[in-house]
Amino acid sequence: MRSPLRPAPLKTPNLSNSVIIAHLVLLGVFCSGYFVAHERLPESWRVAGAPFSYMAGVFGAGLMIVPYAFSMGKRGGALSSPRGWLFAHAVCGFWGFALLVVHSTGNLDQLPALLMILGLFVLLQGSWSRIVVARKISATFGSRPEAFLHRLPVDRIALREIIGEKIALLEKLEPSASEALFSPTLWHWIRAPRLTRSYVSLCRREREIVSAHFTVNPVLRFWRVVHMSAAYLLLAGMVLHIVLVTFFAGYVSGGENIHWWHVTEWTFDWIPLGV
Q: What's the pTM value of the predicted model, to 2 decimals?
């Protein structure tokens, strides 16, 4: 029985399908309302780089960093509440994107609009993966006994040798870890890249031997690769945009008045305008 003097533990938020759908609907309403009301907004709110839109971009970019912090923390083994971070990564992604829509001031005919399209793809693909793909993966391994069966005979001798090599590597890489449970983190890649690469290579060979990939639909196997690739491409585009507007303000403004905070007004003429 819990002591009445001890506070109840905080409940970790759950990223359920209903939460995702609710945020998708609210995001759609917000963005639609913004574009409908755009022409009626004060002029200072409709000028790209003006204080209002500039700060929307700053706070939007800050929220968009949370999903990448979740990704890096998960790989670094530094997350105290992975489920809470998963919730935060989704919610911050939704509303970071909403603020970036405001930051765009409705200018979707310029190059940065590609970032908006990519951001929308990441949001929709991530939501689809959470709602649809997770259910299909669960159904594959929860209701299909054949998902655990091997279509080809397992080479037990080769498998035993690989496990022996993994255990030997693990003695150097992480002596206190169990081979059956160990998964390399970002810290292992930084501290011992050669050993980590060798261990991952052994894991890949082990998966090939047990033929675990034969019974899973390719769409289910590669959704995460697509999501991560698009997300980091979006991050690269955001960093490029920030660098250009901060240090190459003269180039971005096209010779017109610069009305946003910047460090330098460097310019060049070998990349199309509008970034």
A: 0.77
pLDDT tens per residue, range 183-208: 888 788 888 999 999 999 999 888 87
As beta bridge partners, residue 28 has none
CA 43 to mean position of chain CA atoms? 34
Residue among 83, 111, 116 at smallest CA distance from 99:
116
Burial of 50 (0-12, 13-18, 19+ CB in 10 A): middle
User: What is the rounded CA–CA span in Å between residue 78 and residue 81?
Assistant: 9
Q: What number of other Cβ atoms are within 10 A of residue 120's Cβ? A: 15
The 10s digit of each residue's pLDDT in 212-245 is 545 556 666 678 889 999 999 999 999 999 999 9
In the numeric block, which tokens belong to residue 32? Answer: 């639609």
Which residues, in sequence order, are bridge partners of residue 265? 248
Amino acid at site 73: G
Alpha helices by DSSP H, listed for the chain, are 17-37, 51-76, 82-103, 113-128, 134-143, 156-173, 186-191, 193-210, 218-247, 249-253
CA-only gyration radius of the chain, Å = 24
CA 217, 221, 224, 226 dihedral sign is negative
Query: How many CB atoms within 10 Å of residue 158?
Result: 13
CA 242, 246, 250, 254 torsion: positive or negative?
positive
